[in-house]
């Protein structure tokens, strides 16, 4: 959520940045009108309440002196009715104001390039060369079936489309990738966490999934609770409604969880394999930083995501998202994209974003520079480190052999009990 003072004092800049996302800035005018009316009503009711308190004392004195106080009493009844009217109007305004403010996206950083969609994202760097095969390479979904590493049909029977059973060496590889990623992030100073995977609505609101993206979530029937789409939600909310001391900042978290997404609006996209599932595993990085340190932290987190693919020796590239592709709560985002031979293209495997104080304002996450200073909002950052299923897909496709086997990257072999290849039994 944005600071209302920014909307009041720099209205045109806010409108411009909202328009850069392809959104109509008319909502800003609606909010400012509600804010103006709200402040006027608050000032009026405070004045009336002050008047009522003062006159109440006068009435008490008149009654004590056996003087006629009926006119003043009637005036106070009128004042009370007006205060009631104002309170009712304020409740309506406050609800409308809060709803509209919740739908304004974060302000885009000046470095973000303008563009209408992902075709206008800007490539920053590319690492590794796509492999040239001297045989016809298979897609990862065929490799999974041939080596009996996964079962989509039985998952569909149990849970429906876009679910998967990882089986045998497939389950082992999934677990190896998760442990490998967590170990790397631990070495980079992230504190490992195991988090809840069901949260209250207010946690989703704090990180920006609600109210705008409710259709993308799985809600528990008859409960105001949701399964998490990412552990960004649980990790960011760990310090919700807290003020951290100076020596507690920065905060660096990592966690592996299942993630649940309805994939609303994605019908027909990536329907085969591991790329777009309703449930998938992901290792997440989250940081809480002082505002002046958050942009350097964004660059470092991006390097940490890239490093996983560097260690696995899988070709990838990093792109800066344009104004038409960046997420609702982000001020600046890098996507790390991995090479998938089956697509003959790069596919997003991590998004690393600086949310500035957007989430912290919603979640009331603050810090104090010293014991005498006023609390300030922290900046929150998040990024995948990495999406495990997509990493498995990339590994299978890039490390496949002509005989149908898949070589296990050297850095993963200790996590696989020394196993060097995945082969059909």
Automatic annotation (TrEMBL):
Annotated catalysed reactions: tRNA(Sec) + L-serine + ATP = L-seryl-tRNA(Sec) + AMP + diphosphate + H(+); tRNA(Ser) + L-serine + ATP = L-seryl-tRNA(Ser) + AMP + diphosphate + H(+)
What EC number(s) is this enzyme filed under?
Answer: 6.1.1.11
**Keyword entries, A-Z:** Aminoacyl-tRNA synthetase, ATP-binding, Coiled coil, Cytoplasm, Ligase, Nucleotide-binding, Protein biosynthesis
Q: Which InterPro entries match?
A: aa-tRNA-synt_IIb (IPR002314), aa-tRNA-synth_II (IPR006195), aa-tRNA-synth_II/BPL/LPL (IPR045864), Ser-tRNA-ligase_type_1 (IPR002317), Ser-tRNA-synth_1_N (IPR015866), SerRS_1_N_sf (IPR042103), SerRS_core (IPR033729), tRNA-bd_arm (IPR010978)
Give the family this protein belongs to, as stated in its UniProt record: Belongs to the class-II aminoacyl-tRNA synthetase family. Type-1 seryl-tRNA synthetase subfamily.
- Present the record's domain note: Consists of two distinct domains, a catalytic core and a N-terminal extension that is involved in tRNA binding.
The entry describes its oligomerization and partners as: Homodimer. The tRNA molecule binds across the dimer.
The molecule here is called: Serine--tRNA ligase
Originating organism: Jeotgalicoccus nanhaiensis
Taxonomic placement? Bacteria, Bacillati, Bacillota, Bacilli, Bacillales
Gene expressing this chain: serS
């Amino acid at each position: 959520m944005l600071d209302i003072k920014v909307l009041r004092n720099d209205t045109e800049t806010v409108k411009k940045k909202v328009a850069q996302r392809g959104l109509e800035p008319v909502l800003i005018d609606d909010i400012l009108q509600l804010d103006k009316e709200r402040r006027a009503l608050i000032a009026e009711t405070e004045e009336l309440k002050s008047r009522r308190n003062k006159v109440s004392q006068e009435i008490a004195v008149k009654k004590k002196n056996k003087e006629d106080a009926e006119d003043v009493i009637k005036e106070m009844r009128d004042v009370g009715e007006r205060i009631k009217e104002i309170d009712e109007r304020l409740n309506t305004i406050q609800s409308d104001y809060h709803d509209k403010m919740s739908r304004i996206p974060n302000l885009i950083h000046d470095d973000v390039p303008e563009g209408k969609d992902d075709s206008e994202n800007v490539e920053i760097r590319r690492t590794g060369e796509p492999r040239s095969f001297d045989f016809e390479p298979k897609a990862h979904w065929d490799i999974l079936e041939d080596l009996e590493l996964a079962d989509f049909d039985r998952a569909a029977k149990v849970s429906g489309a876009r679910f998967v059973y990882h089986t045998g060496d497939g389950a082992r590889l999934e677990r190896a990738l998760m442990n490998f990623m967590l170990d790397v992030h631990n070495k980079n100073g992230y504190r490992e966490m195991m988090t809840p995977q069901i949260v209250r609505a207010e946690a989703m609101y704090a990180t920006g999934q609600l109210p705008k993206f409710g259709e993308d979530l799985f809600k528990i029937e008859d409960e105001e609770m949701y399964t998490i789409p990412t552990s960004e939600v649980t990790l960011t909310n760990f310090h919700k409604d807290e003020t951290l001391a100076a020596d507690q900042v920065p905060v660096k978290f990592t966690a592996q969880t299942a993630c649940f997404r309805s994939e609303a609006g994605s019908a027909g996209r990536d329907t085969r394999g591991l790329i777009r599932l309703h449930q998938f595993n992901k290792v997440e990085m989250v940081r809480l930083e002082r505002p002046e340190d958050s942009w350097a932290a964004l660059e470092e987190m991006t390097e940490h995501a890239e490093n996983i693919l560097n260690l696995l020796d899988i070709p990838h590239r990093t792109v800066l998202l344009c104004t038409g592709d960046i997420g609702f709560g982000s001020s600046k985002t890098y996507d790390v994209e991995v090479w998938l031979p089956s697509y003959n293209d790069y596919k997003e495997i991590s998004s690393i974003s600086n949310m500035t104080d957007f989430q912290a304002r919603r979640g009331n996450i603050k810090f104090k520079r010293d014991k005498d200073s006023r609390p300030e909002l922290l900046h929150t950052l998040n990024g995948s480190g990495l999406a495990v299923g997509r990493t498995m897909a990339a590994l299978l496709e890039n490390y496949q052999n002509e005989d149908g086997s898949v070589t296990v990257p050297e850095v993963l072999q200790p996590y696989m009990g020394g196993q060097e290849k995945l082969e059909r039994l």
